[in-house]
Amino acid sequence: MKKRKKVFVHLDAGRGYSRDILQGIYAYNNAVSGWEIIYEPVYFLRSDANSNNLSIINSIKPDGCILEFSENMQHLLDLNIPVIQLTAVNEIPDIPFVSGNYESDGRIAAEYFRRKGFNNTAFFGLKNLRWSETRLENFKKQSLELGNTFYSFLLQGNEKDVLTNNFDALINWLKTLPKPIGILCCNDNFGQILINSCSIAGISVPHDIAILGIDNDELICNITYPNLYSITRNHKKIAFYICDLISKMIEG
């Protein structure tokens, strides 16, 4: 009997993007590969959830790894195991990684707000993260080409404490914006932050400020009031590409 290949998967299933990728990996494995998948999900037992557990990987000795986090990705090269990184953050040469189509995000958002009659547009995101700043650049370019006025607000800090020192400034920014205005957020979590901030500031959504997220995390989008509209991406199809590539890498 042919021995099953082992594939180690490490991602944060608390996010819609990661859950979609995980479902795509599951579907591919059922239909095509039949791998033994080892999944490491229990973050509340770990002191550092944002790095890969090299000791576990070294003990399991998987045939390939699909990993979201990048902090110690360089060390994985020393283990000589095929790896695909699920993020473009801190990408490492010789390790394939997944990156969003940021130009498409900008075009879809700019055209969406134009169809809704908005001449004022803005972007809300996070400073010093390339995926956020690249989405800003593309959305700004597309909006200005359509003749819109454009504004932006980028939170400073890491993703764990972005609102600690920014919340009052964010509220003030929202109050000073011309109304009505359409705002693209760097992802759905930031869309939720913005909707909550508008509620605190007494700003009507979507009449004064229309908000658009990215990734279409259905749980986040639907639990928020008003519901968050979001740009859908085909994460499960991406997962099939990832699995097909790691399969080829495992086979050499």
CATH superfamily of the largest domain: Response regulator
Span from first to last CA?
A: 21 Å
- CATH topology of the largest domain: the name is Rossmann fold
Shape call: elongated
Helix share bin: 40-55%
Radius of gyration, in Å, reads: 20 Å
**Number of H- or I-type helical stretches:** 9
Major sheet details: 5 strands, parallel
User: What integer is the average pLDDT?
Assistant: 88
Task: Write down the secondary-structure element order.
Answer: EHEHEHEHEHEHEHEHEH
**Secondary-structure arrangement, i.e. CATH architecture of the largest domain:** 3-Layer(aba) Sandwich
Class from secondary-structure proportions: alpha/beta
Strands side by side in the biggest sheet? 6-5-7-8-9
What's the number of domains? Answer: 2
Q: Give the total of beta strands.
A: 9
Query: Runs with pLDDT <50, length 5+?
Result: none
Q: In percent terms, what proportion of residues is strand?
A: 15-25%
Per CATH, the class of the largest domain reads Alpha Beta
What does this structure look like?
This protein is α/β, with parallel strands linked by helices. The protein has 2 domains: 6-100 and 235-250, Rossmann fold (3-Layer(aba) Sandwich), CATH 3.40.50.2300; 102-231, Response regulator (Rossmann fold). The protein is 43% helix and 17% strand. It has 9 helices and 9 strands. The chain has helices spanning 16-33, 54-60, 73-79, 102-115, 130-145, 167-176, 188-201, 218-223, 235-250, and strands at 6-10, 36-39, 64-67, 83-85, 120-126, 149-155, 181-185, 209-214, 229-231. It has a 5-stranded parallel β-sheet with strand order 6-5-7-8-9, with helices on both faces. Strand 8, helix 8 (218-223) and strand 9 (229-231) form a beta-alpha-beta unit. The longest helix is centred in the N-terminal third of the chain and has 18 residues, at 16-33. The chain is elongated and about 65 Å long. The two termini are 21 Å apart. The mean pLDDT is 88.
